[in-house]
Structure formats: C-alpha cells, structure tokens
Amino acid sequence: MACVLGLDIGTTSTIGILVRLPGEVLGIVSRPVTLHSPHPGWSEENPADWWDNVCAISQELIRLSGIDPSEIRAVGTTGMLPAVVLLGEGGDVLRPSIQQSDGRCGVEVEDLRREVDEASFIRRAGNGVNQQLVAAKLRWIEKHEPEVFRRIGTVFGSYDFINFRLTGERRIEQNWALEAGFVDIATHELADDLIGLAHVPRGAVPAKAASHEVIGAVTAEAARATGLTAGTPVVGGAADMIASAFAAGVKAPGDVLLKFGGSVDILVATDQVKPDPRLYLDYHLIPGLFMPNGCMSTGGSGLNWFARTFAGGERDAAAAAGLTIHQHLDRLAAPRPAGAEGVTIVPYFLGEKTPIHDPDARGVIDGLTLSHDLGHLWRALLESYAYALRHHLEVLRDMGHEPRRFLASDGGAQSDLWMQIVADVIGAPVETLAGHPGSCLGAAWTAAVGVGLATDWAGVDRFVSPARRYAPDPATADVYRRGYARYRSIHQRLSGIGR
User: Fold this and answer.
1) Domain boundary assignment for the chain
2) CA distance linking residue 91 with residue 187, whole number of Å
3) Which positions ≥6 away from 106 have C-beta within 8 Å?
4) Distance between CA atoms of 462 and 482, rounded to whole angstroms?
5) Please, which residues have CB within 8 angstroms of residue 283's CB and are 6 or more apart in sequence?
6) pLDDT per position as a tens digit, 345-396
7) C-alpha dist (Å) from residue 275 to 114, 294, 403, 494
8) Share of the chain above pLDDT 70, in %
9) In sequence order, what DSSP letters do the residues of 138-162 get, joined into one string?
10) What is the mean pLDDT of residues 147-153?
11) In Å, what is the CA distance from 26 to each residue of 68, 138, 216?
12) Which whole-number Å values give the CA distances from 398 to 146, 277, 385, 395, 435, in the listed order?
C-alpha cells in the first residue's frame, strides 16, 4: 500500500509521521531543536539542525516501519511561520533563521507604519503592520547586518528551506507568503510593490506554491541523506497551525480549533475574507476556505514559567503522587471556586500578540491577598488564558464570523480542569480529541491529496476521533462575566504606565 511522509519543522522539535493510506499511522519520530536568544527579544535557530533532524527522522521511520522506501509516494512539510531563512546565490545559509516570535524589529515596524497607509495595507495584504511582516525583519538585517543583506539570493521560510534541501527547488508556500505581507489578496498573487517594502531584489522572493501543489522531487543527493527514493514528489507544504487545525477537523465555516501548546492559538474556518489588524489571516488547506486566527505570546510557556518560579516546593509532592507538576497544581486549584476568589491574572508575560499587538504589555496579578494560596493562583492563571480566548471570540464576532463548534488540541487539552474552565468562560461546549498527533498529520494528508493518492480532504478524519466533551456550567456564567470584565479593564488601566 502507498505511504506518505509528513514533516513538521517546529520551534522546539522536528517531528515526522509515516502514514499508510488510507488510514494507518506506521510511526511518529521526533528530534529536539535548540532555540537561541543571543540578545533580549531575539529568537533564532540553525536551519542545518532542521535538515539533520529530517534526515535522521526519515531514516528511522523507514527502519522502524520495515517498509521499502519506494512505498513512500509523497512528502509534505509544515512548520512555524513566518520564520525567515536567507540563502546566498549558491544556496548557502547566510545566518541563523529569524523566528516568528522574534521581537527585534519594533523600530522597523514603526518605520513601515509611517511609510504606508495601514488601513489600505490591511485591505491589500490581508494582515496588519506588525512584527510578523518579513519586510520589517529584512529591514533590520539591512540596517544591522549589511554584509548579509547584500548577499541575499533567496528569502523564504522554515519548511520552504526543507523543501529546497529535498528538491533543489526554491519556492514559497502560500501562507508563508501571505503572512510575510507579500500577497495581494484581491488577486492572490505576489505583488512587486509589497515585496519592495522589504528592500530586497524582486528575484529574491521565489514563486508562490499552493499547499498541495507538487513543487519538485527528491534529488539523488537528498535521497542518500534521508533514505527516501530519488524522484519522490514533494508538495508545497503548510503553516503548522493551519495543518494542525485541518487535521483536528476544522473544515467547515464556523469550526474552531483552540490550540493549547507553548502558546494558545485560536483558528476558525470561513469562506469569507475579512482582513482585520487585530488577527492574522491565512489560507485554509482546503481551496476556497480561509482561516483567520489569533496567536498569544504565551500559553504552556506561561504555565511552565509559573510552575518553575512559584511551585518548586511542590515537585516532591507531585512526584510522590505520581503526577506531573501541572497535574498536581490542577488538583490544588480544582477545589477553588470559579473566579479564584478575586484573583485575576493578565498573562502578557512576553508582551502580547493578538488581538492587542502590544510588545510592551506586561503580566499582572491583581486582587492578591493573604487569604489566597497556590491553588488560587494556578486557577487564576488557567482562567486568564480562557479570558484571552473569549477576547478573541469577541473580535471574531465583531469581524462578522460566527464560531460554532469548538475543538481543543495539544498538551494543555489534557487538563480536565483547564478545558472545563474554557467551556465555562466562553459559554460553549469544548471537545477534545484522540489520535491527533499535530501538524505533521496535516502535512502528510496534504501530500496525499497533492499526488492524487487521496481525493477527499475529509479523509484525514480517519485518524482523529472525539475524546471528551466539556459542557459549560451555567452556575459560573455570572462569575466569569464579571471576571472577564475585570480582566479586560486591567490592561486598559495600566497601559502606558512605566514605559
């Protein structure tokens, strides 16, 4: 039977999945990635590490599954965006990647805002003028690393780079191009004047590819490195959050994925293009659909920081009970009432992306008294991300979207307490998933569609099934209505203080 390989070039790890069609996972393998922050606000990685991981993962999946490499009929990639990878004319990597979470180019963002009419830019490019824009990152390179800037031959993203190493072809996937700020959404084509804002030659930005478009085939050199068969087709790829939402079942207008990973994300499927500066706009993998989305600066990273900073003394108790520290803190928080008896946290620990786009925002713990304990604080932290999701839902409805069905994925969705809090705060049922491995599955299915091994986008549903449904508790509605109002007011009251 035919197989497809999905590769996820993630921020903390590279993940590969080998799928035998129509619906069997033969194996999943991951390798860690090191994130470097040589200066405050910087976020960089070494693209060579991604390629080394891809080679090791491909070989291991082939070995563990026992298949012949020729059975792998297509490869799909996915990854974080818009990471920026710069190549010289000869294909050499000029410097470490600049990751999507990098915050160095605030000055360049302000320069762009002075140069363009932001309202017109949003209508044209689909996304606002913010630090996601590749033009801002390239202007920083131009100013601070002029020797690197002069040598730029190609600008593209993380999974575009892996596609280049696999096939020798230089292409950019449609969502990298869109979030980069290079696409005119009226024509869905690359626009020379938008690319011109980045100050790079037009030829430095390769041709755009649809996610399921076959862009090339595995070269003989890449075949030797990966264990794949030379000539295996490779498709354009997919943004990681879009691939994850698709694999989770977000396929019809109104479907929503709440993604509880290192950051908390929210994505909704729609057939309407409604650009808004508060959120990001991406293409869905299914042609004709789009996926406006929000990404918070923190999520699981904020919970990890809290546990490390405030709950170190609880680790022995957690271990004695056979629990992770997060599970132990859930147990401490569960008896505390909704609203955490007046404690409200604003989780802007790294500034905040959507919907406020304020890199200078800061985290706040409000209402703390001597009567509160660690359980109250943990519950308030879980509630804070639920309030942030409610804020995003207000924005989506204000834009004219109608979120109707809420699915939850990633590590945070394993917390019964957190998922119940989210259902209570947003006032709608939340469904968790079983068998959802993440973005790599979406990449694999995109490859299957691209080469005609799958003709139905909905076929990916074979891999994922419902796990649990969390219904909102009406008794908490009034508490959370007041809590949400307090949450929103805190940043509004404190904004600008100390800057």
Assistant:
1) 3-238
2) 30
3) 131, 359
4) 41
5) 174, 175, 178, 211, 242, 289, 290, 291
6) 999 998 888 999 887 889 999 999 999 999 999 999 999 999 999 999 999 9
7) 20, 13, 16, 28
8) 99
9) HHHHHHH-HHHHHT--EEE-HHHHH
10) 98
11) 13, 41, 25
12) 43, 12, 20, 5, 34
Pairing of strands 405-409, 255-260: parallel
CB distance 256 to 250 below 8 Å:
yes
pLDDT (tens digit per residue) in 233-291: 999 999 999 999 999 999 999 999 999 988 899 999 999 999 999 999 999 999 999 99
Rounded to whole angstroms, the Cα distance separating 118 from 125 reads 10
Separation CA 333–CA 445 (nearest Å): 40
According to CATH, the topology of domain 3-238 is Nucleotidyltransferase; domain 5 (3.30.420)
Q: What would the 3-class secondary structure string for 93-142 be?
A: ECCCEECCCCCCCHHHHHHHHHHCCHHHHHHHHCCCCCCCCHHHHHHHHH
Residue showing tokens 């390989």: 5
Euclidean distance between CA atoms 431 and 443, whole angstroms: 23
Whether the Cβ atoms of residue 455 and residue 444 lie closer than 8 Å to each other: no
